[in-house]
Write a structure and sequence with these properties.
A two-stranded antiparallel ribbon has the order 1-2. By secondary structure, it is mostly helical. Strand 1 and strand 2 form a beta hairpin. About 50% of the residues lie in helices and about 10% in strands.
């Protein structure tokens, strides 16, 4: 079992590695999405650098791991709004901060 510090450092390394290897669904957005992942990673880690409560650290690490899994599964690096149904995927335009929903490839059963 890893210590909380080791889990946090591993999460940070995994996120930076993801930002370097990320390929977008639309190749022209790859550079923009890589920069977004790096920026979000750095800002979240800086915002939470003074957290010392082990329960809160565990919660934040789980959230980060969830975001990585979500990015790999949906091929979307952006945080999914909580009000969307689980099967919904979407495109995000970072500069305009707008969403465009994608239709599912298979009907939802």
């Amino acid at each position: 079992m890893l210590s909380p510090r080791a889990r946090v450092l591993k999460l940070y390394r995994d996120l930076i590695k993801l930002s370097k290897t990320w390929t977008s669904v639309k190749p022209e957005h790859t550079v923009e999405e890589r920069a977004y992942i790096r920026k979000e990673t750095r800002s979240h880690f800086r915002d939470n650098q003074n957290v010392t409560d082990p329960a809160k650290i565990n919660e934040l690490v789980k959230e980060g791991e969830y975001r990585i899994a979500q990015a790999h599964h949906y091929r979307i690096p952006y945080d999914k709004p909580s009000y969307l149904p689980p099967q919904t995927t979407f495109d995000v335009h970072v500069k305009n901060k707008s969403y465009k929903f994608r239709m599912p490839k298979k009907p939802i059963a």
